Amino acid sequence: VAGENFDQSPLRRTFKSKVLAHYPQNIEWNPFDQDAVNMLCMPKGLSFRTQADNRDPQLHSFIITREDGSRTYGFVLTFYEEVTSKQICTAMQTLYQMHNAEQYSSVCASSSCSMDSLASSIDEGDATSLAKLQRYNSYDISRDTLYVSKCICLITPLPFMQACKKFLVQLYKAVTSQQPPPLPLESYIHNILYEVPLPPPGRSLKFYGVYEPIICQRPGPNELPLSDYPLREVFELLGLENLVQVFTCVLLEMQILLYSQ
């Protein structure tokens, strides 16, 4: 388990994650920092869900800034896939049994009763709350389907957010689709890693994803730097008043700290 969150139910806890594979193994000008990428891809750690939880894929980005000031940009699509290991499913049920036993003990202690007279001593309100606890805060291996979070990530020298997002979404659809894509998945990964070049400054580049073509554009030398992040989301997240205040602080060269989940 990552962190000390044992008070939470097992499905609300986070667990230690790790990088399963990365390609290519290493690049001379951009060595792969496994610990940094792992932490930034899953900042809260590995998480589990059941069929009753929301499992919509989510995209986020990160920046790795090195000592020399150079930057590397990462774009991550997090999704949930079904757990096929019977051992992991059994372990999750065991965690729930232990968690529910602790909940019983805490309710019993608050009611000043002994375990022998648990049924007769817990008042109606406590019994109702325990029933709800078992119904909504449980995992039954024979009834529930367990899912675990997984990430696919693209690391790039420039922040081509929209192009990376479209490629990752298409790759995810190909992985989860019952109908296989036109070519093996390895072909698309090899293509974007080794065959799609960076567009020259001031030029656009069109390349093929899994299902649809993808276009990315690089600003020229006399243009503003590449900013592929949608401004609409900034307004939606911060609101107009907060954004004006942040912009004012930028103009006044004040120090700004944005804190987010």
Automatic annotation (TrEMBL):
Gene3D superfamilies: 3.30.450.200, 3.40.50.11500
InterPro entries assigned to the protein according to its UniProt record, in alphabetical order: cDENN_dom (IPR001194), DEN5A/B (IPR047278), DENN_C (IPR043153), Tripartite_DENN (IPR037516), uDENN_dom (IPR005113)
Keyword Coiled coil in record: no
UniProt entry keywords in alphabetical sequence: Guanine-nucleotide releasing factor
Pfam families: DENN, uDENN
SMART domains noted in UniProt: DENN, uDENN
Protein name: DEN5B protein
Source organism per UniProt: Origma solitaria
Gene: Dennd5b_0
